[in-house]
Structures are given as C-alpha cells and as structure tokens.
Fold this protein.
Amino acid sequence: MKNILIILTAIFFVSCQNTRTKEKKVNSDLITKIDSISVNNGFNGVILITKDTITIYSKAFGYSDLENKTLMNMENQFVIGSISKQITAVLVLREYEKGNLKLNDKIIQYLPDIKQSWAKEVTIHHLLVHTHGIVDLNKPLKFELGSQFHYSQLGYELLAQVLEKVTRKTFNKLSTEFFSKYGLKNTYHPDNKNYKNLVKGYEESENGKLEYCENSLFNYVPAGSFISKAEDLNKWNELLYSGKLVNEKTLTLMKTRYATRLHPIFDKIEYGYGLLFKDGESDIQIGAFGYAPGFVSACYYYPQTNMNLIVLENTARKLDNFKETFRVHTELMELIKKRTPNILYLL
C-alpha cells in the first residue's frame, strides 16, 4: 500500500511539473507574439495581462512625453475614454441595489428642469443603453424612444446628474469616495486634480505628425474622462466580475444584450450597461474600448480563462480608420480570446 502511495505521488508530481512546463511555454509564446504585435505597430503605451491574479505580461513602450523623451512606465496614468461608462453604470446600479432608484424611473423625477416632454418618458435604462434619442436638452428626440441605438455621451452625463440628486453629492465626490473605498488609488475624476502621472496624449495630424492634444479632458467625465492606470483597471475587472461592486444578479443585468450597434471597429456589437460584446460572446470576451483625444484604450475580461487585458496608449494614429487606430488592441484581444477552451483556434 505504501509503495502504491509513493508511485501515485510521483505520478502526480510529474504531471504537475509537465503542466507547469507546458503553461510556461504557452505563456512564453504569448509574450513573444505580444512583443511582436506591439513593436511592429509602433505601439506607445502600456500593456497588462493577468490570469487568476497572476501577471503574465506587463510592459511599457515608448514615451509619456514625446517632446522631452520621457520614458513610459507602468505607473503612468491615462484618460480612459468610454471605459468610464461602466464605472458610471456601476455607480447607478449600486443606488438601484439600495432601492434609491429604479431602472424604469423616468428622468423627470430627478431632473425636473428639463422642459422637453420626452423627460417624462425617457428612463434611466434608456440612458444606460443609448436608446433614448436625446441629442440636445432643448430639442426633440432624434428618433422614437427605444427604437434605435445612438451612442451618446450626453446620456451618461444625465446619469451623473441623476446620481447627484439621489446621493446629494457631486459626481466628483461620489466617484472619489467610491475609488477610495475599493482601493483604486490611481483612478480619478479629473476635477480631483490629485493625479500626478498623467501622460500627454497625441494625435496624428494630416501631415502624419503626432501633435499634443490639449482637449483630452473636454468630454463629459461620466462618459469618457476618468483617469486611471493599468493596474487599477485590472483591479476594477477583478472587483466587478467577482461580484464585489454589484451583486451577481445586477452584474447579469450589466452583461445582458439590450441593443445592437454598427461599431467602427467591431462592425456589429451588442451593448449592455457600459459593457460591450459580440453576439453570444458575453461569457468569452466582454469589456469596452475607450477613446479620448490622444488616448486609445481597451479593458477586457475573459470569463472562461479568468484573464484580463488592459491596453492604454497615448498616441492616436490613422484616425480616418478606427480599425487601424485600435489595431494593436484588437490583435491582442484576438490572441487572448484564442485561449478560450470552446473556441476552435490554435495559438
């Protein structure tokens, strides 16, 4: 009996060693491919990939300040563009869980100063999923309520105003307290002014030169102007998808398909509450892109492999074709997606 136990233990040990060796080789191949994609496309920014809280890849490329040739590092902060929307959505859903608002509440309940008749019909849900048709607070809806998808920064600004009424706090204070509570120490509302490592953002001009953008923070904050760094966004994913920010039932609401959009990068894409995914892929690849003048970002989670991919770039090129602007991001996403067990790809 003792000999059998020794043999079984030896087999188990060898099996574990073989598994670790195989995993190291797979990760080594992945790292080589990431390096190749990044270098060949002139990537300027940071990339972070984790699995089960273990860092697989963490590297900074290029410069945080092109004029002064200041080297990029993993502590640098970026304007995260529309990744901000899922943060705003979570803040709304936390108030929903507390019973302080309902998703089918009409916005007139919270924003009585809006004089348009549609304020009596548009709901918080419509704002979350971009099906409201609001293009101007002083104009009629662009289309019949709920009949179409129209990507809206204004809609998320209105959600922030609803939150201010419900919580009796400024959106700055509310988000700052939230980030502090969950240890997101390098994520900021830009009005907070406590960020110290924000990189400069650049866009390619018509003559092909990268020029500094002075308007990177001009968008509505709840829609596209939060500031963060790669490690914080990775932690955000870990908190969100483990049910620590909202409960599992509410998280399911976030990941539910409510609208379809013809996307400039993905072509056809499904929208939840601040999250997007291809049809049928909410359990394979889910997250968001972010774009602000000079900043090109991606923040994605892979449920079946428990992997996170964070890509933050401060040089926006080929803006006449967003598929090219986000080429590094989408190629890296495809690499990680190929590791999904039920996807018939080869690495």
Summary: Residues 29-337 form a domain with the Beta-lactamase fold (CATH 3.40.710.10).
